[in-house]
Amino acid sequence: MSWHHLSTSTVMYKQLSSIQRLDFLRGRIADRSVLHLGCTNHPYTNESIAKGTFLHEDIVNKASLTYGFDFDNDGLDILRGMAYTNLYRADLEKLEDVDLDLKFDVILAGEVIEHLKNPGIFLEGIKRFMHEGSELILTTVNAYAAFRFAAYALRGRGGVNEPVHPEHVFYFSYRTIGKLVELAGFEQTEFYFYDIGREHRPTNRWYYNMINDIAVKISPQLSDGVIAVCKLRNAS
Prior knowledge:
It is globular and about 50 Å long. It has 8 helices and 8 strands, in the order βαβααβαββαβααβαβ. The protein is an alpha/beta fold and 236 residues long. Helix 6 (146-155) crosses helix 8. The model is unreliable at 1-9 (pLDDT under 50). The longest helix is centred in the last third of the chain and has 13 residues, at 206-218. It has helices spanning 21-29, 45-51, 55-62, 73-81, 119-126, 146-155, 174-183, 206-218; strands spanning 12-13, 33-37, 65-70, 87-89, 104-110, 130-141, 186-194, 225-232. It has an 8-stranded mixed sheet with strand order 1-7-8-6-5-2-3-4, with helices on both faces. It has one domain (12-145, 167-203, 224-232): 3-Layer(aba) Sandwich (Rossmann fold).
């Protein structure tokens, strides 16, 4: 077997410690125009609103302009009932069908790409909403998360009881997400690992949190998830 390595010369790689996903995203959207893909956080819309971890609210409050796309009608109705605007029902694998001709400073797809049948088509569709200085920010679960390995080892029941969201169809890592965005015509400019979010720690089993914290302290690449920041390739 041969190993073909991605060039990391242009990637700012966060390897000394993991970060908090929501804190990172909040810091990247301030005073910028943002297109939020998967804006309802389906099927956890009401739960995240009640917890105070509803990302779309933060974006609306911090960004200069916010639009949201989602395919979940119920979630969109909840947001409209809360007086949110600029919401579109959109199939994220058919973004060419969306009747909107705007470009944004930030395209945010948080915990979305692992749900899609055709992530390459999704990435291609995003380009029409980007200008040469736009950032695409992808966040997704880490294929090598230590606490998931522990959960699988302890409670996997021969593979039946896999610790994965029932709607996920992919796992991603530094190299696989890097290769995917490269094939879609993007350049990955930054990469980070994010730790178990403060909103999830209280509901995790205590020993999974302990295993995570020990593993991540030694090797941040065993964190809960990954963040890839990308731009259009050859954008001047």
